[in-house]
């Protein structure tokens, strides 16, 4: 970790990746409300520390998506960080979606308050973490209080 330069992130702005390695190390500086999905692009690696804060989706949609060939390592050094639709009245969407070929590793963070049913989509299973292929490693943390509904409720 000595060679890693962790950058502060407000949870709203675009994440800046190293142009050579396509890698970013960011820590959340405060609770963040989002209206769009945070996407880890093909071939990019994102190391995200929640730092005790929450990323809350305030509209319908998935909170984080890891695309084919992308890698997300989600951690929380405070053990209180959350990814989800927790207090929003609109909670339709998954917490983390892993597409075919993507990789997701979870360390000490929480994924909760998500509802895995979006109109017109038949991928309701996995409201907290939806596996559309790829690899998921859970080392610590929790996935709880999520609801997987069939299309239409």
Topology record:
Layout (H helix, E strand, L loop, with lengths): L6 E3 L13 E6 L3 E3 L3 E3 L4 E5 L4 E4 L6 E3 L4 E5 L6 E3 L11 E4 L3 E5 L1 E4 L16 E4 L2 E4 L2 E4 L9
Parallel strand pairs: 1-2, 2-5, 3-6, 4-7, 5-8, 6-9, 7-10, 8-11, 9-12, 10-13, 11-14, 12-15
Task: Give a concise summary.
The protein has 153 residues and is an all-beta fold. The protein has strands at 7-9, 23-28, 32-34, 38-40, 45-49, 54-57, 64-66, 71-75, 82-84, 96-99, 103-107, 109-112, 129-132, 135-138, 141-144.
Tell me what you see in this structure.
The strands form 3 sheets. The protein has a 6-stranded parallel beta sheet, with no helix packed on it. A 5-stranded parallel beta sheet has the order 3-6-9-12-15, with no helix packed on it. Strands 4-7-10-13 form a 4-stranded parallel beta sheet, with no helix packed on it. It is mostly beta strands and 153 residues long. It has no helices and 15 strands.
Number of strands: 15
Globally, the shape reads: globular
Radius of gyration: 14 Å
- Unreliable spans are none
Supply the helix-strand structural class: mainly beta
Beta-strand level of the residues, as a percent range?
35-45%
Provide the helix percentage. Answer: under 10%
Write the H/E string, N to C. Answer: EEEEEEEEEEEEEEE
Strand order of the largest sheet: 1-2-5-8-11-14
Helix count, DSSP H or I runs of 4 or more residues: 0
Average pLDDT: 88
Termini distance? Answer: 45 Å
Biggest β-sheet strands, sense, barrel: 6 strands, parallel
């Amino acid at each position: 970790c000595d060679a890693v330069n962790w950058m502060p992130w407000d949870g709203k702005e675009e994440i800046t990746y190293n142009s050579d390695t396509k890698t970013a190390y960011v820590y959340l500086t405060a609770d963040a409300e989002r209206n769009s999905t945070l996407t880890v692009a093909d071939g990019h690696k994102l190391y995200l520390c929640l730092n005790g804060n929450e990323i809350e989706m305030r509209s319908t949609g998935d909170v984080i998506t890891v695309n084919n060939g992308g890698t997300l390592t989600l951690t929380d050094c405070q053990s209180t960080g959350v990814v989800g639709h927790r207090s929003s009245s609109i909670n339709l969407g998954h917490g983390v979606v892993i597409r075919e070929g993507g990789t997701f590793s979870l360390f000490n963070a929480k994924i909760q308050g998500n509802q895995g049913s979006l109109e017109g989509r038949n991928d309701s299973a996995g409201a907290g973490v939806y596996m559309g292929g790829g690899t998921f490693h859970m080392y610590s943390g929790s996935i709880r209080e999520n609801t997987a509904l069939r299309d239409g409720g």
